[in-house]
Design goal:
The protein is an alpha+beta fold. Helix content is 32%, strand content 28%. The chain is built from four helices and twelve strands.
Length: 295
């Protein structure tokens, strides 16, 4: 017969070992559980604190950057007039176009925008050497230097300025507090509210008839008149003098004349961009060169 007691003892010992192993595993899991629970509680707080510090530092840096940007914008947007060492109330500019400006009361003003200067003083004439006092200034640099001959290049080298497209000579009455050779003249010589005279070449209109060119009324349209409504009529006697007098108002080329418009008011000045806003219209089309003189 098989001894069943020995087998039963072995099974009981195995059951005891399994129970003890389960108890130890349960105890170890119970010991590890609070530790694991304590770790996740502490780490998020630390991570949150680190994230808060980083976000705070980032916010400070962003605020400092914004402050820097704002100060730069404020400094760049300043449109203050700079003090000039001399007085010269003439300037060369380029007509940009026309726009409208509104006052605080809602009044609208037709405005011409002129890019005035900066101009370089290229020559100074005196009464002793040249018989009169004047100052020559130049405007708009020439990009292609191959278009300049040696005489003009030597002329600009004397003033140590870059070659200019437009040169204009302005007479001066006195010889005190004037710019010197090589100085730069800009819009700081003008103030809003002042009056200036603007000269330039008017818009060319081609060949025009006497009615459009000189404002003639034309012939009568009734009482037996035929095809004389836009005729010029008689231009002089036939036998004596038998010729047309010089200056007779007839059809011909219209426009493209040197015109000066006086007493134009300066509404506003952008000193940073060298822009002058003048009330009314000035001679010439857009991108036409004009000459400004303070009244």
């Amino acid at each position: 017969m098989i001894n069943l007691d020995y087998i039963n003892n072995i099974e009981e010992n195995e059951d005891l070992k399994n129970d003890s192993a389960e108890d130890t595993s349960a105890e170890e899991s119970a010991e590890l559980a609070p530790a694991e629970e304590s770790k996740p509680e502490n780490t998020p707080v630390e991570e949150a604190s680190v994230e808060d510090s980083k976000s705070g530092e980032a916010g400070l840096t962003e605020e400092s950057k914004l402050d820097d940007v704002s100060t730069e914008e404020v400094s760049g947007s300043s449109n203050d007039k700079k003090e000039s060492k001399f007085v010269f109330t003439n300037l060369i500019g380029k007509k940009i176009g026309m726009t409208q400006l509104f006052s605080e009361n809602g009044d609208v003003y037709p405005t011409t925008i002129i890019e005035a200067g900066p101009c370089s003083v290229t020559q100074i004439k005196t009464d002793k050497l040249d018989g009169y006092n004047s100052i020559q200034i130049g405007f708009s640099d020439i990009k292609n230097l191959n278009k300049i001959n040696k005489s003009m290049s030597g002329h600009f080298k004397k003033s140590k300025s870059t070659p200019k497209k437009v040169l204009k000579e302005f007479r001066v009455d006195n010889d005190r507090n004037l710019p010197e050779l090589g100085d730069t003249v800009d819009v700081n010589q003008f103030n809003p509210g002042e009056f200036v005279s603007v000269s330039g070449c008017s818009i060319g209109k081609g060949f025009a008839g006497h009615m459009k060119r000189h404002g003639f009324g034309g012939g009568r349209a009734s009482h037996g008149k035929n095809s004389v409504m836009r005729k010029s009529g008689s231009v002089g006697a036939g036998t004596s003098p038998g010729r047309i007098f010089p200056g007779m108002k007839m059809a011909g080329r219209m426009g493209a004349d040197n015109v000066t418009v006086k007493n134009l008011q300066i509404l506003d000045i952008d000193y940073n961009k060298n822009l002058i806003f003048i009330k009314g219209s000035v001679p010439g089309s857009s991108n036409n060169y004009v000459f400004l003189r303070k009244n």
